[in-house]
Amino acid sequence: MTTTAFDSDNRVAITAVTGFLGSGKTRYINQLLQQPGMANTVVIVNEIGQLGIDQANWSFVQPSTILLEGGCLCCQMQGSMSATLQRLFTDALARTIPRFNRIIVETSGLADASALRFTLHSDFFLKERFYYNGCICIVDVVNADKQSAYIEWSRQLVQADLVLLSGTDCAAGDQALGVAQHVSTLTDAPAMSIPQFFANENTLDVLSKLQISPRPGTGFSHFMTGPLAGAIVTNRRGLAQEQDLAPNRAHQPPKPQSSLRPVQTHSAIKIVTLAFTQPLRRSVFNQALEVMLAGLGTTLIRAKALLRFVDDPGLYLFNIVHAQRYPAQRLRAAQEQDPTAMVLFLDGATQLARLPQAEDFYRL
């Protein structure tokens, strides 16, 4: 039996958005918030580290943003999530913050939705006031072949109720189709490209039709999703039709069971944080960045940075996914309290003679 995620009661819907490092979660949520009916939405960002890069990135588009920092949501952050949701409810009740009718949780690139699901089912206070509205997993089709080697990539898909493919406009040949077929071996959730998702006339209605199928399990229910109805199914077929080949699901291996209890192990990924105490010289930074990228090679999975430059009042966001460096984005005028730092996610299985240092970006 399936249940529609949007119930007729007055509880607040909580939707998780997951996806591996650099998959495009923030960009997708930003676009989603621009859609009709999404105004009264709170975004909770789970960021690894203490620097608040993701929060600064969000603050210029979405003021109702709360940062869960210092850890991964699927590990030690369940207590923080529970406290955050309780505070949101009581503050809205006391009218110290505007009332909201939905919450989006953007997990870190190493987390899945199991901890959020566990929290909402095990905390009585939360269970009466919030409900789990499913999980949307973003998959980068360009880098899926590399990223699928990490267990987090698969775990995120197993928890998904809807899979959205990013980077389809940059994919080569039948790359998107190949990724869609791979995804279909891990989850029964419908899949489509992000442009197809936003082609729906009412994206809020799409979210309301997320289906969560309970599976029998011990203690708490296990979940695996089934197909959506209407426009979603049409869009899923549309992706296959664009490639002139529909995925053959007749002889798929058994789907993995999705456990509600959080998994607390990760791949060997090393996280390096470089904190910058002074503005950088742009020319020196660019040269040092090229040297760093060349030195790290395939060891670098993801990098993001929030930076200020000499003689420039702006605050800039930099994103790098594997070897692909994206154009810097000027967020707004910099403020004194803004963190300036770079966070590197490195393949811990590769031994490096020397890790990058913040000082490298101040000298040639």
UniProtKB/TrEMBL annotation:
Database matches in Gene3D superfamilies: CobW-like, C-terminal domain, P-loop containing nucleotide triphosphate hydrolases
One function term, GO molecular function aspect: hydrolase activity
Pfam families reported for this sequence: cobW, CobW_C
SUPFAM superfamilies: Hypothetical protein YjiA, C-terminal domain (SSF90002), P-loop containing nucleoside triphosphate hydrolases (SSF52540)
InterPro entries in UniProt: CobW-likC_sf, CobW-like_C, CobW/HypB/UreG_nucleotide-bd, P-loop_NTPase, Zinc-reg_GTPase_activator
Gene Ontology CC terms: cytoplasm
Catalytic activity as recorded in UniProt: GTP + H2O = GDP + phosphate + H(+)
Domain CobW/HypB/UreG nucleotide-binding: from-to ranges: 14-179
UniProtKB keywords: Chaperone, Hydrolase, Nucleotide-binding
Domain CobW C-terminal, first and last residues per copy: 271-345
Family: Belongs to the SIMIBI class G3E GTPase family. ZNG1 subfamily.
Task performed by this protein: Zinc chaperone that directly transfers zinc cofactor to target proteins, thereby activating them. Zinc is transferred from the CXCC motif in the GTPase domain to the zinc binding site in target proteins in a process requiring GTP hydrolysis.
Protein name: G3E family GTPase
